[in-house]
Design brief:
Largest sheet: 4 strands, antiparallel
Structural class: alpha+beta
Distance between the termini: 30 Å
Strand content: 5-15%
Number of helices: 7
Shape: globular
Helix content: 25-40%
CATH superfamily: NADH Oxidase
Strand order of the largest sheet: 1-2-4-3
Length: 188
């Protein structure tokens, strides 16, 4: 699959098949993150890979009601980082967040190529997940990435979530986010 095709095809679907993901595919996802770029090659990401019943349950008990669908995910990456593990920049730029985001983005494209869904979420109790997974207090639990094969079970989805599953959400026009030469001058 070409990168452009993976970008076009990637979706944060919520319908997961519960079957386990093969170990070789899990390792390809990990390798995509491991090879991701970072400031001075600091590699600030720390990832708890939850794929056994016990570790998955330690995460799933902390999901918000709106993310109940993630209970079907057979694999969850708990992505963490901390300020001291990456470049220290001025103007409040906590660069570890950017580095971890890059790693997740590359992993999501790899997941798409493998026929998997990789859906990052923010709706969970981070303190509960950190406690349950023994994540040190000085780390930020940035996101949980729910990973699995596409499924058909919509029973854990809200009406709105079912509707969103049928088509790609609208994107803002280029001129809303991209500026030509200076802020506020729409690119197109």
């Amino acid at each position: 699959m070409e990168v452009r095709e993976a970008i076009q095809k990637r979706r944060a679907s919520r319908k997961f098949d519960t079957r386990p993901i093969e170990e070789d595919k899990v390792m390809l996802l990990i390798e995509a993150m491991r090879l991701s770029p970072s400031c001075n090659n600091n590699q600030p990401w720390r990832v708890v890979v939850a794929k056994d019943k016990e570790s998955l349950e330690k995460i799933k008990v902390a999901l918000s009601k709106g993310n109940a669908y993630a209970k079907n995910a057979p694999l969850i990456f708990a992505v963490c980082g901390k300020f001291d593990d990456d470049c220290h920049l001025n103007d409040r730029r906590d660069y570890f967040l950017f580095g971890c985001g890059l790693a997740v983005g590359e992993m999501m494209l790899q997941a798409t190529e493998l026929g998997l869904i990789a859906h990052p979420i923010a709706g969970y109790d981070p303190l509960m997940v950190k406690k349950n997974l023994n994540i040190p207090d000085d780390y930020v639990l940035i996101t949980l990435v729910n990973i699995g094969y596409p499924g058909t079970d919509a029973s854990l989805l809200s009406e709105k979530q079912v509707e969103v599953e049928t088509k790609r959400p609208e994107r803002k026009p280029i001129g809303d986010n991209f500026f030509k030469g200076s802020w506020g001058n729409p690119l197109v």
